[in-house]
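A reminder from the course coordinator: this example appears on the midterm review sheet, so study it carefully.

Given structure:
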């Protein structure tokens, strides 16, 4: 199957699973569980001494150290940002309410041309998920706590071009939770 047909078939399958979730919960959650598996796709890497690193844990540490340099103050100094008046400190009594209509609108605005995946199905499941999400969002506003899954990101090194063993030929892709993005 070529890329376009495969994407359409996948989107069609995911749409069918989303629509039938009430009658086929097991099939839906099996599919979601399968999407959470990781792939081992980083080839052996060269460390700073020129030795080849083969073990996954060592490759992860090597990539971690390399990409940590991206987030240092030396790499991109930034001026402290002033809070706008609209971003005032909320008192518990004055917190904005999270309405179902707001959540439904956010769900309807999710990109249809992006990868559906487990989170992307939220758009198709808006009628089913709007009430639980609005409750979670509201409780999160009130308590200041966010579900742990929404704070985690799946960070994957993706090979760009050049020698696969060279760290500089990888870039990071961070997959974060859509409800977490909506909450922001």
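Designed residues:
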């Amino acid at each position: 199957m070529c890329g376009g047909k495969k994407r359409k078939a996948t989107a069609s399958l995911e749409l069918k699973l989303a629509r039938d979730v009430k009658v086929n919960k097991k099939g839906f959650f099996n599919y979601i569980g399968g999407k959470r598996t990781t792939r081992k796709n980083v080839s052996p890497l060269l460390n700073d001494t020129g030795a080849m690193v083969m073990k996954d844990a060592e490759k992860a540490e090597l990539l971690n150290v390399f990409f940590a340099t991206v987030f240092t103050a030396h790499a991109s100094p930034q001026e402290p940002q002033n809070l706008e008046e609209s971003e005032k400190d909320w008192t518990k009594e004055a917190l904005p309410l999270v309405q179902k209509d707001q959540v439904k609108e956010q769900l309807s605005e999710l990109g249809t041309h992006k990868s559906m995946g487990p989170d992307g199905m939220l758009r198709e499941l808006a009628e089913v998920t709007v009430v639980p999400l609005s409750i979670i969002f509201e409780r999160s506003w009130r308590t200041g706590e966010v579900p742990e899954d929404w704070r985690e990101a799946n960070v994957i090194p993706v090979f760009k071009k050049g020698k696969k063993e060279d760290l500089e030929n990888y870039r990071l892709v961070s997959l974060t939770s859509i409800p977490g993005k909506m909450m922001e």
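The two ends are 38 Å apart (CA to CA). Residues 74-88 have pLDDT under 50 and may be disordered.
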